[in-house]
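1st attempt posting a full record on here, be nice pls
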Amino acid sequence: MSRTCANPRCGAPLGGTRRAQTTTCSNRCRMALSRARRASTVPAELRERDRWVLHDAAKAPRTPGGAPASVTDPATWSRFSTVRSRPRRGFVLDGDGIVCIDLDDCLDAGGALSPLATALLRRCPPTYVEVSPSGRGLHVWGRGEVARGRRLRRGGGKAEIYGAGRYITVTGRPHGGAPSVLGDLSGVIRWLLT
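the predicted structure (as tokens):
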């Protein structure tokens, strides 16, 4: 029986000279399969909302067609299915109770957490936490109320909290076995703001 590329959008036969553990026919298919697997870790509560954008290298929001997108214009947002296999995707926060805590530079090269990240994650209920695009930060996703975005310094660390008027990049790279659910972050938000 001949083997085929594991990328469902391809299905090309794998050549006989490939190693036995090879599952894709090309680097392009390998990357597409990897992005699709990471996309499946994104909580359904985010995937089900049509509030997705892409972003360029400078983190400016874009539509899938490449035009500028706006966090205040739902006509420029997309379905998750449109962006799921694309790199550089983001989710628009619009004040409906979904929030994100952005912890910058909280992971060292070995993956150890900063004191602020350790204290914050200890206070979190089970919720989706992912590694940021830089690989040095974390995005803590959940539910809560944030009247306005805030940038904070606490215990030598930096955190930002947003609930509206912003988009946050979504990598689909869970941190530490984080579940694909949105927990109630109200207590964590209160702790950060005090």
